Amino acid sequence: MPRGRYSLHDPHDHTPLGEEHFHCAPGPSGWRYVAQRTTPSGDHAGSIDLALDELGRPIRLEVNAASWQVRGAAIDGVTWVRTDPTGTHATEGNAPAHAFTGTSPAFLIATTRLLNLTPASPSTRVRLVALTDPVLAPRTLDQSWTLLNSEAHATDNGPLVVDEYQVTALDTGEQHTVHLSGDVVLAAPGIELEHLETPPSTFS
């Protein structure tokens, strides 16, 4: 069960946004990621609990940030309920999308599980509902993912396979690169892996 800490920053001006303390693991039904977020000063800033099925679809998502909460799942596309900080207003939403995304590294891993690409796969388009900070406002977007390279690196614990993905935002054409190993993000825009207690899990 990988357990560790990511530092998060603005991908454009590198302003520190805080840290995400996580643990994750494959299970009999798929994969689960649980994390707590802190501000740069160390205060609690939110949490995420994401469970995927064996095909990478979100079967349960709960995200908390700035006292807002979103609960969602893959139902008729993706469906969610967003609750305001007072808890008096809850709005339901639905979109013909494949999954959710956001600033948590969990969403990058979830998207790769869903797409299940190989280096021989063509670029694959995916529609996602982004939960945008700081109030988890939902926004539908389209991305194209390509697995550029999958390479094994020797480590003290055996070979570590690193996958390099190119992600293109289809509305702007902006491209960036994501490096993953199993269920851990090694590097991505706005994300740095600062500490990892155990090796990444490998998916069958």
The SSE string, one letter per element, is: EEEEEEEEEHEEEEEE
Report the radius of gyration as a whole number of Å: 16 Å
Instruction: Please provide the count of β strands.
Output: 15
Mean pLDDT metric = 94
Q: Give me the oligomer status.
A: single chain
Globular, elongated, flat, extended or rod-shaped: what is the shape? Answer: globular
**Major β-sheet, in short?**
15 strands, mixed
The span between the termini is 15 Å
Number of helices: 1
Could you estimate the helical fraction of the residues in percent?
under 10%
Backbone structural class: mainly beta
Query: Which band does the percent of strand residues land in?
Result: over 45%
Low-confidence stretches: none
Strand order of the largest sheet: 8-7-6-5-4-3-2-1-15-14-13-12-11-10-9
Secondary-structure blueprint of this entry?
Elements: E1 3-9, E2 16-27, E3 30-38, E4 44-53, E5 58-65, E6 68-73, E7 78-83, E8 90-95, E9 99-101, H1 105-115, E10 124-132, E11 137-153, E12 160-169, E13 175-181, E14 184-188, E15 191-196
Parallel strand pairs: 9-10
Antiparallel strand pairs: 1-2, 1-15, 2-3, 3-4, 4-5, 5-6, 6-7, 7-8, 10-11, 11-12, 12-13, 13-14, 14-15
Organism: Streptomyces kunmingensis
Protein name: Glycolipid-binding domain-containing protein
